[in-house]
Amino acid sequence: MFAPGIDIQQEREWLRSIHAVYRDIEYTFLDILAEGDKVAIHWRFSGTHQGEHLGVPPSGNRVTVQGMALIRFVDGKVVEDVSYWDDLSVLNQLRGNKDSG
To answer: Looking only at Cα atoms, what is the longest distance across the chain?
Structure first.
């Protein structure tokens, strides 16, 4: 799935760390657009904070954040994945701030 040059082990470790913190993860793809060699995905993530994340100890708070990923393919393999989300919103939700999300 990934072209040479993409650090698969790093991707796996990141995914494992997120799943360790948010064991009840729900991903929703809100929009998927494709053109040429690129796919854009607008996604939503939700999960219960059950492990340390962004320096915040487990709070039990439900976290919801939206983000975007732009993935480029060559010969059917991922060669680039640029993703954006709002860590400040996540941090506010971890801390229980009501005006975030």
So the answer is: 46
For residue 81, how many other CB atoms are within 10 A of its CB?
A: 14
DSSP assignment letter at 19: H
Exposure letters 43-70 (e unless 16+ CB within 10 A, then b): bebebebeeebeebeebebebebebebe
What DSSP line would sit under 44-96, residue for residue? EEEEE--S-BTTB-----EEEEEEEEEEEEETTEEEEEEEEE-HHHHHHHHTT
Among 8, 1, 5, smallest CA distance to 77 is for: 1
Buried b (16+ CB within 10 A) or exposed e, 5-22: eeeeeeeeeeeeeeeebb
pLDDT value, residue 45: 95
Sheet containing strand 38-48, edge to edge, reads: 26-35, 38-48, 62-74, 77-85
User: Model's pTM, two decimal places?
Assistant: 0.79
